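Self-study notes.
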Amino acid sequence: MKRLTKDYQASLIEALRDPEEAAAYLTAALAEQDIPTFLLALRNVAEAKGMRALATKAQLNRESLYRMLSEQGNPHFASVQALLRALDFELTVTAK
């Protein structure tokens, strides 16, 4: 009998379509205090929402969005803010 398994990335992307799940995922990635980890999480959330529509909503070029979220990406803070706004998220700061 064939065992049905779901690819981890596909399962993650599916879960990240839920805004609460995506927000918790981004918060956990940001808590790691590692920019590449946060950018990977942001890329996964962006993929879950649809890159093309997201690029349009954030007023970013789709190719630039992919480049910005790549492993070598080094986005400007304004671009990250635009992307978060397009995802209907906001960045907040809390006291330790």
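Second protein, same conventions, sequence then structure:
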Amino acid sequence: MRLIGAIHSGPVDRDLRDYLRVLRKRKWYLVLTLIVAVGLAAVFTAQAPRVYEAGASLFVGQRQIPREDVETDARVAVAVSDLSFRLLSSYSEILASRNISEAAIGEFQLDISPRALRESVRARPIPNTQIIALTVSNSDPSFAQRVTNGIADVFVREVQRLDPAAGGGDPVVNVTILDRATVPTDPVSPQPVRNVLIAVALGLAAGIGLIYLVDRLDVTVKHSTEVERLGLPVLGNVPTLDIPRDVLYLEQDPQGLGGEAFRKLRTSLGFLGVELPLRTILVTSPGPTEGKTTIALNLAAAFAFGGLRTLLIEGDLRRPSLHLMFGMRGTKGLTTAIVGQVTQADAVTPTDIPNLSVMLAGAIPPNPVELLGSEQMSELLDRLKKQFDVLIIDSPPLIPVADPAVLASRCDGVVLVARSGRTDRRRLADSAQIIERVGGRLLGIVLNFIRRGDADQDYGYYYQYATVPSSDESPAAPQRATRG
């Protein structure tokens, strides 16, 4: 099966479900940022000085015009009314001016600098009224009350001095104190509830930003949809289970997620072999520690449980490990059968699992690539296909060495194993291209070690099979594979 379309290794497009999955998987980043943000807000609130605010209200009004003068002084009345409104903003500035502050300090003997006093004074006109709100902030509530009233008194006298009717007569504009300041009892700062709410909002924003930054920098494949967006077919997903790597999933988890994953993988390969039978299947991975040997072992067991005569071949002649899984020892195996030191029958060892045999690596050669690419290797595979229905070959990683590329051209198909959260998208795409360049047939990707959070969507429907035995195997679990 040729790959359709160009294989790319850049950032992949995502839908809403992908973003929600990222949030769920990295939710501890969000929890951590929230804890830090709220903690910092609590420390800031506890250490911040208490600030009290005293307030007074001043009314700005025009001179009262006698009723008998209303008609003759109508224009004057309108002008005076308009003047009072226009003076509101100017009076607000005067209230917070340096002259008012210095006058208040001198008259009431305040222990504060003019600059500090000006910074604590705030005067603002209340919209749609003729009232100015005057407030003074200070850590001492009594001091704030005394300064507020002092500034109000000084300002009333200053307005009389600056009145437009300075030439004599009644003042055009009157300023009176409506409400004098009282001693405040509750601080206006800090505000614990507001600070915590702000901290929660900032913590959420920082946490979500951190999550997607980390995810953006993470170039590994973590879910089957990411593999599909690379243009690569997905054969199956294998979840992370708490069982040793040398134990068969179909032995320890026959009716659970692990067993069902390999039955599904076997079925997928069966569909791919309708037109071109898959007699020899190579199992490899882009790099080491991605679980290819475990996948090869369990896939071979799945075919054997399905009633097919299956041979598991250890094609990793550099770091063989199947002999450790089966508890076998000896130098008879693939290499000695290729060079003719032992017969084919002597190189094959049956196991306690029905229909499953294994051919170990044998003696480690100095030239694995030449040996695997030889005509003797091809002839050995042809002879083995007459004895077995399916050959599963476990090979070294594809990127570091050329051994899998040599074997890929001699097999009916290649299963590429990727480890969720570890396999680089670029290396996975490069591995698929290598298989195509050597003329191999990439059957698809098996995403291994799927985390529980990512596996829920792919494996949710498996739970309904948990108590239903598969039709191709008995309910009793088979024994661990041992030397026959």
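Instructor comment on the second fold: The domain at 220-465 is CATH 3.40.50.300 (Rossmann fold).
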